[in-house]
Specification:
Elements (H helix, E strand, L loop, with lengths): L4 H15 L4 H16 L1 E9 L5 E7 L16 H9 L3 E3 L11 H6 L6 E7 L4 E10 L7 H43 L8 H15 L4 H12 L10 H4 L7 H8 L1 H9 L5 H13 L20 H16 L10 H10 L7 H15 L2 H5 L1
Helix pairs in contact: 1-2, 1-5, 2-5, 6-7, 6-12, 6-14, 7-11, 10-11, 11-12, 12-13
């Protein structure tokens, strides 16, 4: 395929940008915006196949593009549908003369489609959608040169889109599996059902208050979900005991931090699993060094552990137990503040308090 020299630099830059993106939403917008720029299109739509077989306009640009929301093309419907079904590109100078043209969108919005390019997006095994570019800006029409450039671009975009989709699916699968595991652990004791999910939520709110990046928030979320995984190795007679624990039972209960760390230390890759290990091992440490299992203190306790420690304690205080009723959020926040500097990192405790006040609108209740 011959690409005009003036397009090569633009295409190389676009390829570099596509290969640096993994988040689906950002990638879809980038694909369409750059494709329209390359061929000087007035409008464009990125159609993607849904599991049911329909084509959905995931991103649209140009006049009246809002009118595409909610539109679904049946398999083989319109030029886009034909391109996907047949796995063949389409260059139409005048859509009114093409029998495959579906005017539903133009009829409903008043937009006038004159000419278009439609190129299948080929994944490794199947067509995953198509790139539709509409109306050459100015007085001209799309030609063979535009088609060649768009085809080259669509090939690069399809690979990046498929990688992004797999990345999104795999990340979703991992989060689902972690949540199922956390729920299974919590289910051993009906009094703590939902504990890991709540600790996760409180931890993420605190991380956001501390200006964590998106990547760091996701790592914190995973660590908080699995902070109690070591309780899988604690006997039911200890874990479910409704009264005070004796010395030996307490030692067994305390062992869950080390047991959790032992379970998680084999998770790979290490650079992504490190926070899981830290959350399990350090969430029972105290800022003054009086916690367990290692008795570390201050900033020697990883930040993930310091955050989960506050969230974990807060949930324990506010959850009903057989021998006591859970405290109110206001009273629990007062206790967190009282223990700042001894049990908790003062900065983390303050960020936790701010996050909870914002999330649950507790300002008047707490400060009155």
């Amino acid at each position: 395929m011959q690409i005009a020299h003036e397009h090569l630099q633009s295409l190389l830059e676009i390829s570099r940008m596509l290969n640096s993106q993994f988040e689906a939403d950002n990638l879809l917008e980038l694909v369409l915006d750059k494709a329209m720029h390359v061929v000087s299109a007035e409008a464009g739509t990125l159609w993607m196949l849904e599991e049911e077989g329909y084509l959905a306009p995931l991103v649209a640009r140009g006049p009246k593009s809002e009118g595409l929301k909610g539109l679904r093309l049946k398999p083989g419907e319109g030029l886009a549908g034909q391109v996907v079904v047949n796995d063949e590109h389409c260059l139409v100078e005048d859509v009114r003369k093409d029998p495959n043209w579906s005017s539903r969108f133009d009829d409903s919005t008043g937009f006038i489609t004159k000419s278009l390019l439609c190129i299948p997006l080929r994944g490794r095994e199947d067509v995953i959608g198509c790139l539709q570019l509409i109306n050459k800006q100015g007085q001209g029409y799309f030609g063979r040169a535009d088609l060649e450039v768009a085809q080259y671009f669509a090939g690069q975009a399809a690979i990046s889109l498929e990688n992004s989709r797999m990345y999104t699916w795999q990340k979703g699968l991992m989060h689902s599996l972690l949540r199922v595991l956390a729920s299974a652990l919590d289910a051993r004791d009906h009094y703590t059902a939902g504990h890991s999910e709540r600790v996760c939520r409180y931890s993420v709110l605190t991380g956001a208050e501390l200006n964590f990046s998106k990547v760091d928030l996701e790592a914190l979320e995973r660590a908080a979900l699995l902070h109690d995984v070591g309780k899988i190795g604690v006997r039911d007679t200890v874990l479910l005991k409704e009264g005070p624990l004796d010395k030996n039972e307490w030692e067994d209960m305390k062992s869950h931090a080390q047991k959790g760390a032992k379970i998680l230390e084999g998770v790979e890759p290490v650079h992504l699993a490190g926070k899981l290990f830290e959350g399990a091992l350090y969430h029972q440490e105290k800022y003054d060094g009086s916690g367990y299992p290692q008795g570390v203190k201050g900033e020697d306790i990883p930040l993930v552990g310091r955050i989960i420690a506050v969230a974990d304690t807060f949930d324990a205080i506010t959850t009903d137990r057989p021998y006591r009723k859970g405290a109110s959020f206001a009273d629990a926040l007062a206790e967190i503040r009282r223990c700042a500097g001894t049990q908790f990192d003062p900065a983390v405790a303050d960020a936790f308090r701010r996050a909870m006040l914002k999330e649950y609108n507790l300002v008047q209740q707490v400060e009155s």
